[in-house]
Write a structure and sequence with these properties.
Layout: E1 10-11, H1 21-32, H2 52-65, E2 72-78, H3 81-92, E3 98-103, H4 106-115, E4 120-126, E5 148-151, E6 153-154, E7 159-160, E8 172-175, E9 192-196, E10 206-212, H5 229-234, H6 244-260, H7 262-283, E11 287-289, E12 300-305, H8 311-320, E13 323-324, E14 335-338, H9 345-360
Parallel strand pairs: 1-13, 3-4, 3-5, 5-8, 8-9
Antiparallel strand pairs: 2-10, 6-7, 9-10, 11-12, 12-14
Helix pairs in contact: 1-6, 2-6, 3-4, 6-7, 7-9
The protein binds pyridoxal-5'-phosphate.
């Protein structure tokens, strides 16, 4: 049998992941000829009147889209979110200080491991007991903790904080790598937010860091220059050569986001996608959601087949229909559908149609 080559690809990858087509088009043009200068964006100095406006606009647009106040600084830093697992406690903790972490899965566990290199860690709440299929309720945060760290969306488990613990009594820090700018939150109530760009914001290689400058400068030990948030703030996020292309792709994505109507408009679309997906999932008994309903992620939906012997059949069908990235993370198995900002509602409609077809077929 000849496999048909699908002209439409639906990209459900968890990260790096789907971005708007116009972002790819404009980014690729800039590699050849940036702003009609005859030069590639990859061959111009970063301290020039060509690149400096890119960084300035990316920072300003982030401030605008997240409606940040004057105390919150926006930085675009090297590395992935994994770098922030270390950089956050390095900037925040003295050796004898206590930090509070909510343990919601793989990413939280990695963040906790790094924090322990710099201070003491307490677990404010954990979902480990039930295999990370829910978000811990009733956090217990010591009033002496320097901060509480949460992972707003656990990309692998498929859980998401719907009710942010704004009132935890200590500064709030969040890893928002997989749901940054996907919904309206009171971003000013966070003292530090970080996100690797490659899920909702752009290309891999750059982190967005939003930090309330008032929480910095409280550790007594020296911090290496490149890892000190204060030097990056002072240098307007241009301490050294930034990852110029990744920053540019982030800028294009931010411009796209603004054109769509901003974070509120994306939230509406994301709600519609999640509703369509989960409603379909819940009406088809051959499938089963992994996460308790109230904590389901609107970015990464995890589910299984009741009859695991049909897994390959389902994946083959997805592949034939141009649906990529549906296989679950290697550590948890099953399936995962990622529905980031740039994923269109049509892609979820196509997938849910396919799921209905599959459910109607005998195994
Ligand atoms: C992907 C991801 C990370 C890791 O990001 P890197 O850029 O690969 O370091 C951390 N936290 C969350 C929530 C993620 O989804």
């Amino acid at each position: 049998m000849i496999e048909s080559v699908k002209s439409v690809i639906h990209n459900f990858n968890a990260g790096p992941s789907v971005l708007p087509k116009e972002v790819f088009e404009e980014a690729s043009r800039a590699v050849i000829d940036f702003n009609e200068t005859g030069l590639s964006i990859l061959e111009i100095g970063h301290r020039t009147n060509l690149f400096e406006p890119v960084m300035a606009e990316a920072r300003a647009l982030t401030k605008e889209l997240m409606q940040l106040d004057a105390d919150h600084e926006v930085l675009f830093l090297h590395g992935g979110a994994t770098t922030q697992f270390m950089q956050v406690p390095m900037n925040m903790l003295n050796e004898n200080d206590l930090a509070s972490y909510a343990d919601t899965g793989t990413w939280a566990v990695k963040a906790i491991k790094e924090a322990k290199l710099f201070g003491h860690v307490e677990i404010a709440g954990s979902a480990k007991e039930n295999n990370y299929t829910s978000i811990p309720k009733n956090l217990s945060v010591s009033p002496t903790a320097v901060y509480l760290h949460i992972t707003t969306n656990e990309t692998i488990a498929g859980t998401q904080w719907k009710k942010i613990p704004y009132d935890c009594g200590v500064p709030l820090i969040a890893d928002m790598s997989s749901d940054i700018m996907s919904r309206v939150l009171d971003f000013n109530k966070f003292d530090l937010i970080y996100a690797g760009a490659q899920k909702n914001m752009g290309a891999a290689g750059v982190n967005l860091v939003v930090v309330n400058k008032n929480i910095l400068g409280k550790v007594s030990k020296p911090i290496p220059t490149i890892l000190d948030y204060r030097t990056h703030i002072k240098e307007a996020s241009m301490l050294n050569t930034p990852p110029v292309f990744a920053v540019y792709v982030a800028l294009l994505t931010l411009r796209w986001l603004k054109k769509q109507g901003g974070v509120a408009a994306l939230e509406k679309l994301n709600n519609a996608k999640a509703a369509l997906f989960y409603n379909t999932l819940d009406t088809l008994p051959v499938f089963k959601g992994v996460v308790v309903k109230e904590d389901r992620s609107f970015m990464n939906a995890t589910f299984i087949l009741q009859d695991v012997t049909r897994e390959k059949e389902f994946l083959d069908l997805c592949k034939r229909e141009g649906m990529v990235g549906i296989k679950g993370h290697r550590s948890v198995g099953g399936f995962r559908v990622s529905m980031y900002n740039a994923l269109k509602l049509e892609s979820i409609a196509a997938l849910t149609d396919l799921m209905k077809d599959f459910a109607n077929k005998k195994g």
